[in-house]
Write a structure and sequence with these properties.
Helix content: 25-40%
Number of strands: 9
CATH superfamily of the largest domain: Protein of unknown function (DUF541), domain 2
Strand content: 35-45%
Radius of gyration: 37 Å
CATH topology of the largest domain: Alpha-Beta Plaits
Number of domains: 2
CATH class of the largest domain: Alpha Beta
CATH architecture of the largest domain: 2-Layer Sandwich
Oligomer: single chain
Structural class: alpha+beta
Shape: elongated
Order of helices and strands: HEEHEEHEHEEEE
Low-confidence stretches: 1-29, 212-223
Strand order of the largest sheet: 3-4-2-5
């Protein structure tokens, strides 16, 4: 009796397994009948070399005095002359920005009671006032540098060049990137013996910030001006195309 009951209880399981097997087979057949889209994914790059039209100068004055007030007074006098001189050169206030200002003591190691041991003592004070200046007329750059030194600037460095409005050049790089991607796609399609269809998607991978390139030309507005080289910068981007193939 026990054996008979066991056999009967397994019959529904066989039926269920058979049904699942049939359903699985049908499902696999339908999946195979569905056409998978055939596409090619390709990346193109574009870049434009541009002559910079803007420069940024880091300049300033460092002064020392017996007291902090003395050092500050001397610094203020020199910086006032620099601001006035830059205004005479038609540099607008919006293009001048204080980047750093500091007052700190100057130490000297004095011997203690004639021994070799020393102790730091304050000998005076130093004031530093740093200014960031944007030059929008690069032909005047050499003259501006010469003027800054004449007016008392004893800190000049960190001169950098840039493109003031790079948007139109970035658009040119984008167009070149698409052309480059399509050119590559045609080569691959011809080698593979397939035909290109419609473009399915276009994704921009990001534009690159202008990078300094080889400096080609020297700029002089007057014989006494400091010679400076602006060179070129590169504005670049890349795009990825998804293209249907037939």
């Amino acid at each position: 009796m026990t054996s008979r009951l066991t056999r009967i209880s397994h019959a529904p399981l066989f039926a269920a397994a058979l049904a699942l097997g049939l359903m699985s087979g049908l499902t696999g057949t339908r999946a195979a009948d569905i056409d998978t889209p055939h596409v090619m994914t390709i990346t193109g790059e574009g870049q434009v070399n541009v002559v910079p039209d803007t420069a940024v100068i880091q300049t300033g004055v460092i002064t020392e005095g017996k007291t902090a007030a003395d050092a500050l007074a001397a610094n203020t006098k020199s910086m006032s002359a620099i601001f006035a001189g830059l205004a005479d050169l038609k540099i607008e206030k919006k293009d001048m920005q204080t980047s750093n200002f500091s007052v700190y003591p100057v130490y000297d190691n004095a011997p203690v009671n004639g021994s070799e041991r020393t102790v730091p003592t304050i000998q005076g004070y130093r004031v530093s006032n740093q200014l960031s200046v944007v030059i929008r007329d690069l032909d005047s750059l050499g003259g501006v540098l010469d003027k800054l030194v004449t007016l008392g600037s004893n800190q000049i460095g960190g001169i950098s060049f840039s493109v003031d409005k790079p948007e139109k050049y970035l658009d040119e790089a984008r167009a070149d990137a698409v052309v480059d991607a399509l050119h590559k796609a045609k080569i691959y399609a011809g080698a593979a013996g397939v035909a290109l269809g419609e473009i399915v998607t276009i994704n921009e991978n990001g534009g690159g910030m202008p990078q300094p390139m080889y400096m080609k030309s020297m700029m002089r507005s007057e014989a006494a001006d400091v010679p400076m080289a602006a060179g070129e910068q590169t504005i670049s981007t890349s795009v990825t195309l998804t293209i249907a193939i037939q």
